[in-house]
Amino acid sequence: MDTIEPSAVLDGCSNLIAAIRAGGGSRSSWRGRRWPGLVTAAGLFDSVEQRTFRHVLELPREALEDHLRSYATIASRPDAERAARVAALQAAYRHATEVPLETVERCVEALELARQAAEHGNRGASTDCGVAVLLAEASIRGASLNVRVNLASLKDEAYRALAEARLEAELAQAQTIGHEAMALVEGRI
Q1: pLDDT at res. 87
Q2: Which of 68, 96, 86 has its CA nearest to residue 163?
Q3: Rounded to whole angstroms, what are the CA distances from 77 to 53, 87, 118, 165, 175?
Q4: pTM across the whole model
Q5: Separation of alpha carbons 148 and 103, rounded Å
Q6: Contact predicate 38/129, CB 8 Å
Q7: Is the CB of residue 106 less than 8 Å from the CB of residue 173?
């Protein structure tokens, strides 16, 4: 039986604690998207398709860093600049909503690729596809939590309604694809 190194547990806990700060939801969802190797292990995709698959998951790190900088900028403004501060805060919340919402959308695309791998890939890698589906679902759920917490702070009702509708559509699609993919995995093991 394999053993888990204590240092790996400590590193994992340190990473979790580091993610629990302002912008932690974005960090968590960004990290959670780093699972495509499990699907490519199923042997379904050639090298061109693997590059396409990775592209689905590549949200530029700059978007995450911009998101985190927007929080720092707001925190440093004096109260005398209240109107500008409120406007900057609303812009930051909007941006803070877009980054994880885009993460959700890309992870749903990747979830569909995982479903295809579960259906057509190497039967021996079915469990890898199952784990990829579970990780994609966790990434989607984590990013959706970040979207929701930021939406709650937005005053722009029209944008909020649009973003909520986008999120709900993606979550419904993810649920359907995830159930189909896991049924395929279960049927092949």
Answers
A1: 82
A2: 96
A3: 41, 12, 51, 33, 42
A4: 0.65
A5: 13
A6: yes
A7: no
Amino acid at 59: L
Structure tokens at 10: 């400590």
> Which residue do the tokens 């090298």 mark?
47
SS3 38: helix
- Cα separation, 9 vs 147, in Å, equals 29
Task: Please check whether residue 108 is in contact with residue 140, taking contact to mean a CB–CB distance below 8 angstroms.
Answer: yes
Smallest Cα–Cα separation from 143: which of 111, 183, 177, 186? 111
Query: Phi-psi category of 156—alpha, beta or left, where left has phi over 0 and alpha has psi -120 to 50?
Result: beta
Ordered DSSP codes for 113-164: HHHHHHHHS-GGGHHHHHHHHHHHHHHHHHHHHHHHHHHTT---HHHHHHHH
SS3 letters across 157-170: HHHHHHHHHHHHHH
All domains of the chain in start order, with CATH:
22-188 (1.20.120.680)
**For each successive 10 residues of the chain (189 residues), what is the average pLDDT?**
45 39 51 54 50 52 61 60 79 89 92 91 89 92 93 93 97 97 95
Tokens of 172: 């419904």
pLDDT confidence of residue 85: 79
Residue 98 is inside which H or E element, if any? helix 82-120
